[in-house]
Amino acid sequence: MERKELNNKIFSSVKWASITEIAAKLISPISSMVLARLLSPAEFGVVATVTMVTSLADVFTDAGFQKYLIQKKFNSDRELKESANVAFWTNVSISVFLWLIICIFSDSIATLVGNPGLGSVISFASISLVLTSFSSIQMAIYKKKFDFKTLFFARIIGAFMPVVVTIPLALLGFSYWSIVIGTVATNLSNAIILTVKSDWKPFLFYKFSLLKKMFSFSMWTLVETILLWMTSYIGTFIVGRFLSAYYLGIYKNSISMVTSIMNIIAASTSSVLLSSLSVVKNNNHEFGDILYSFQKSVGLLLIPLGTGVFLYKEFVTNILFGSQWMEASMFVGLYSLAMAFSILTGQYISLTFTAKEKPKLSVISQILYLIISVLLLLFTVQKGFIYLIIATSVARGCFGLINILLGKKYIGLSPTRMLAGMVPSVLGSAAMAIITIALKNISDSIGWTLAMILICICVYVAVELIIPQSRAIIMPIIKNTAAKIKKFTGLRKHNKNEMSK
What we know:
Structural class: mainly alpha
Membrane topology: Multi-pass membrane protein
InterPro entries: Poly_Biosynth_Transport (IPR050833)
Protein name: Lipopolysaccharide biosynthesis protein
Largest sheet: none
Pfam family, one: Polysacc_synt_3
Keywords: Cell membrane, Membrane, Transmembrane, Transmembrane helix
Number of strands: 0
């Protein structure tokens, strides 16, 4: 694939992926904001434990085949379809088996995770395993072909499910059941839409030699995904065992909300970045250029976003959750800072490991991150909630540092180029912090807080336009946007004149 053609596909994919993630992630926090006012932190704690069980089973359902299909260069379309078929039937078989196991031992599982009596909830929630097995391979093929437009429609419909299902059920008093039922409805809609619109449909074909070939790569990806689950839910397990459901709800819901906000930017680029890196994986120069370009460009949005949430953490927490969640404000702020750094380094560099077909590096990374997380959480969990949230945020930042070191040694990435690309964003964010510290004592009203946020945005943009490195990224976007606005207004004026004749 020529570089120009690749760039065009990247641009189109980023456009649709960005629209998808922005729309979905805007809808998700809004529904979460409503639910946070309808359900208590303790009820969110119950949902967290149920999700912990179902998400672990879902790890085994995918078995790492999705990443294999995305990054593998197939010799023909037939080879791709046959591999997809083997992956599909394997996923379906595993998911049905795991669902039956969970249903049989649901009461024991509920007791193990610290919520006896929730066996029926876990059994029902696990229906999602079968549903996601139908959409997982379809999603991989869409991403493989840079068809993010189709994924957009499926994701948007799924994003509206909490609005039309979860919130009404919560209003009717269904408690945590409302979230569980809403999740199943979302997975059902994804499975139906992606299967119906796909050119590829599963057929009766299976080849164990293909499975063996796929699993030789997917084995390490599966191990990595299990470790990802452990790093994502080890905090949930530890907090659930040592603290109350109230603190578990605050802990998990804060992480989920911050991740959802950050992923408005990050998730829209990660899939495109992986697909792009996989295409040029044998060209180290282009490989590095694409990664550094993504880090630099996304950092212009992600770093000030994390800084802004930290600077206005009480205001943001009150908006997102309501007054009963104010104890979460420090966690929301600190974790936002840590996530901004972790996404640009840890998450993006992990994609280079996959693109270079070195999944063992991701496994090593997750093991080191897991060890650090467990040690910090066990050391702080009984000292107080504030120490726990600091430890969680520090551990998240360490994930980025781990991948920087691994990327330098085994992929040949340059930490200097990475960090240098983030300097403009850091300088602009520092200017935001100075302005906030200087002005925050004038008033604590909502109006003044909103005014300070607007001032911070203006100051940040001004700083970035002064710095040549960031100006080179921002100005083409401004010019392109201005040209489109001019074209749109000119078209409207022309149509108006035609109608008046």
